[in-house]
Amino acid sequence: MNYVEWLRVRNLLRIVAIILGVLLVLAVVLRISVARYTTPAHWISQIEGQPDVKVQHVTLPDGTKRTIVDHPAQGTHVVVDDRGYAGTHIVVTEPTKSHHENDNFSVGSVSVSESKHGSVKTTVIDTNGAVPMIYYMALADLVALIVATMLAAPFAREADGHLEVALTKPIPRARYAMEAIAADVAGIIVASLLTIAALYICQLLFESPRLDFSGVNARAIAIGIACPLAWYALVCAATTWMHRAFGAVLGFAWPVAILVGVLAAIHPRNVVGLFIHDVAWVLSRFNPISYVTFPNEPTSAAFFASDPTFLPRLAVMLLMFVVYSGLAMVKWQRMEA
Amino acid sequence: MSTITISNLHKRYGSVAAVDGVTLEIPTSSVFGILGPNGAGKTTIFKCMLNLAQPNAGAIRYEGRPLSAPLFERIAYVPERSVLYDWMTIAEHLEMNRRAYATFDSGRAGELLEQFNVDRRKRARALSKGMRTAAMVAFAFARNAEVLILDEPTGGLDPVNQRHVLSLMINEAARGNSVIFSSHQIGQVERAAERIAIVDRGRLVLEGLVDDLKADRKIVEGIFPDTRFRLDGIADDARVARTDRTERIVRLLVTAGADEIAQRLSGTGATAVRVLDLNLEDIFLYAVSPATATTDVIAEERVL
Q1: A298 shares contact with chain B (CB less than 8 Å)
Q2: CATH number of B217-303, picked from 3.30.70, 3.60.20, 3.30.450, 3.40.50
Q3: Nearest Cβ partner of B53 from A3, A7, A337?
Q4: Which of A213, A304, B125, B297 sits in a 20 to 30 Å window from B281, CA-based?
Q5: Where is A133: in which H helix or E strand?
Q6: CB contact (8 A) between residue B96 and residue A163
Q7: pLDDT tens digits, residue range A225-267?
Q8: What is the ipTM of this complex?
Q9: With the C-alpha atoms ordered B202, B208, B214, B220, is the resulting torsion angle positive or negative?
């Protein structure tokens, strides 16, 4: 293990942990603040106070607290099954004049399905559904990309006044470089895991989380690991080859990547705009982030079947990691103090 | 590791020859001093010795073998400037060395840090220049290395610690190891080094045992009654390495036969002729400073 690089990684992970810790504290504060709104009892007690409303409370054999609310005047019938941390199942039956047909959507762990039968609409709300892992990976990937950017100058930092230390160790330069990259890769993955763990704990404060790893979620995990590593290698190669200005490379990496990405995405109608678009598109092919796309599909779709581009995109990212890391190592081998 | 051999070493940076054909042999169990003015090429020689700079030509061999990564286990290097990581504590630097070198003696490093009054809990950025140098020196001497290459190892140190570093160097040589060091403080080199090499503008201008260099070289000085005088060909004598003139005073650097040259100088009309011993500073200055008076004296002699 490259001790100096490991210390750099450790210090950065410490900062990541502190930031995630602050987010956790905020989540705890939020949890305490909204405690009384997180169970159906609060709004049921409000309904109970209304005239003409009949409320029945029943405890089912499995411990589920069932509440049946009837509002004959409005024609509304609500059944609430409160299973504590296992979630809540709510069925609302009410009259409707809308011509809107059936609808299904989910937000995080909450899934809502609406169905219409004649003039009656039935809404089924399930909390504590499986949370698509892609949500977790979205934030974990963002954190991993930031950490990757901050770590992506191991050789340039050594060249900034420490080559006499780094290059007089009794190991070949290639091994030194591989150990440094390995430490950084470990740091990026650990940052990602820390973020996922923090998100999981945040969710745990409100409900018992169940994560969905199927279909697009599994692919999101693979891309979520490969993309930050390929991005790290790209920036690492750039900082190594331009080691005298590595700070500027780190500072401009994101703005340049975003600018190129935007220019590659828009399709102007004039010739100059098209030319810029074409150049940006070609440049964007060298950026692993441009390969991160997830087509709309049911989360339960098969791992490969619904996205034939997934494996090639993953392969490109892994290839980028190898090639860019190799380029950085080539320069490292040739560095002089 | 008995001998380090540097053969016809050349290193260019663009059009500038930083090292120009230097050949040296550094024996074991000795303290070897490299002297030279700023920009003479001392640090570049060290960097080439450590593969930190790639020579354009020439070879460097340790016991007849070229430098390879495993050999760094037996070579310790203290660069001219601080290469400590500002954000790391001295304790972390110690740990870094312990992990990197199998022969590193943490206990010895701790002792040396205490002797130099370096607080190991402090980050490197919080240390003075002298303390940083002291820390690097402590780590190098705790390496149990067979070759110590020290570039200005006393830079920024107070006189007490400077003396301590010199003692450490002499001790290492006594233990059978080789110490190669550079310093601008010629008194230190004279005190510690058995052999010296003087480099100037990338070239080796003088090399040998300090005692031999001092014994062989003398200054013959004479004062003439007025500024118009003749040297009767003394300046062309092969034993006269250099002639300097300041108004009526002539100084001849002679490599042998100082008494005979002094007699000849007396014969030309010079008074107060005397033979002076040289110290290392004189030897160094004569080696690296241009012989400003030689041409004048010889030219004047020919005119007169």
Answers
A1: no
A2: 3.30.70
A3: A337
A4: B297
A5: helix A133-151
A6: no
A7: 999 999 999 999 999 999 999 999 999 999 999 999 999 998 8
A8: 0.86
A9: negative
